[in-house]
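Retro notes - structure team

What went well: the batch runner handled both jobs without manual restarts.
What didn't: labels got mixed up in the shared folder, which is why I'm recording both outputs here explicitly, each with its sequence directly above its tokens.

Job 1
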Amino acid sequence: MEDYKYLTIVDWVKNYISTENLKTGDRFLTEKELCTIHNVSRQTVRQALMKLEKDNIISRVRGSGTYVGDFASPKSSASGSIGVISTYFSDYIFPHIITGIEKVLNDAGCPIQIATTHNLVSEETQALRKMLAGGVRGLIVEPSKSALPNLNTGLYDEIKAAGIPLVFFNAKYEWSEAPCVAMDDVAAARTVTDYLFDCGHTKLCGLFVLDNIQGHKRYHGFAESCAAHGKTEAEQGLFWYAAEDSAKLFTYDKRRILDMLGKSTAVVCYNDMLAVEMLKFCKENGISVPGDISVVGIDDSRYAAICDVPLTTVHHPHDKLGEAAAELLLKRMEDPEEQLNDVLFTPELIVRQSVRKINA
């Protein structure tokens, strides 16, 4: 996903100019230096520099070098911009969402500044404070640990009191009145679970993230489908995990997961990233997919089609979701008094090779 790393460099350059107190006309870092710092190709660096030059953050002079532009001071680069806060944006579905947001806001002539939280509430606090200090005109935020109590309610109260329009994407805090643009996560999990029942599976298990509200909603859809098919005991085959533990899940809980799979013919994974790890786990432990166990994911990420066993999943709207979030924010900026409802995208089932039909 190197094509999208330029967004990280753009945000880094703005922060670097601010923290180093660089002034208009000061010589800036070379392409080679930026490649070394960020460990990316020269093409990615040039993509970032093109955007920075377009926004007058830097100025490139042929045969001379790169210099700080006219609008590179912290106030002018942030003031009047739209703040976009995402848990991640360097991989998975996040680059597509950010690109959709950027497209709409660029077309509307709105500069943006981007921050990531790595799904940490403390980093969300820092991002919100920085953007409020910079005088942003609006905010598009993906919540961090959205299913847990949040310490930033005071900051969101400040945002509301200041009349700064706010839109959430992917999820929202249940206590917030701000609108949200997301995929219908309940319907997403219900869709893939219904498909498993349609294929003849009756012994299902599921793995869901516990600290993000999407995990709760996807469990809701899983449970609804099980109940509709008379399988209320499905809640006994559940595995809940914290988002930051996903990388070590299949190492630390190997025995428990093997036991769960041994009692099932199919497993519903919280998202494609987890489903791909499940495929690797099954391969390492001599479990055939879909021969011994069928696996489904959610989000239709780029991983879903290129993994060892292409995944059956549901399609996430990706860039369209980002565009809708930006459009909703612009609408709220035009008329702050208008009551805006949440926007939910209906998921679309994508059938690939990871599910075995046992009723054929």
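Job 2
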Amino acid sequence: MVTLAARVYLPTCVGTFAIGDYKANRVSRFSISDQGSGFALTWEEPLLNSSHRNFRPVDVKEGPDGAVYVVDWYNPITCHQDDAFRDPTRDKAHGRIWRISIADPRKQKKSGRPADLLTAPISETIQGLKAPDSWTRYQAKRALTGHPVSEVTAALDAWVRTLDHKKPHHAPLLYEALMSFASIETVRPTLLRKLLRSSDMRIRAAATKLIGRLA
């Protein structure tokens, strides 16, 4: 079974990651810090604990509304060997999704009805690349692959030209553009070279990784 880590942005959890610790019936949380050429991991207070043995959080994601969603496999049996498959207590019918949000409605993230990116025009879909949450940005890149490559390429080129290099989020938006080009298998060497010189090491790393994919 695979567990995936997701960044958590609840007020008390800023800067930490959450991961489904399904064997311990909890959603664990950790933070990282620089340590030499790598990172150091520090376990924090769990995001969610359960005393019920069937609580099996197998995936954790942040939604576009700022809430954290936990996929609960809800099963007393976690093994996949033959005898476990025949175990009469294995639950094959139930499962749950938990939504974790801020209790104070005044502090909850305001979110309107999300645009239907599958039917939206290309220009509107590209605006999704500016979204503060990764879910919307990812869905926007996915939706762009459903349009003719030539039209998406032209629209992305035009959008990049409108970005103000004096704005603080200029480099991250260029990164989103580069990855959008990559999703339609289109190479933009000038943009790639610019991001390889970015002051943000994460962007440089992503651009370097992309070189290997395009080579």
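One thing worth noting from job 2: DSSP finds seven helices and seven strands in the chain.
We'll revisit the folder naming next retro.
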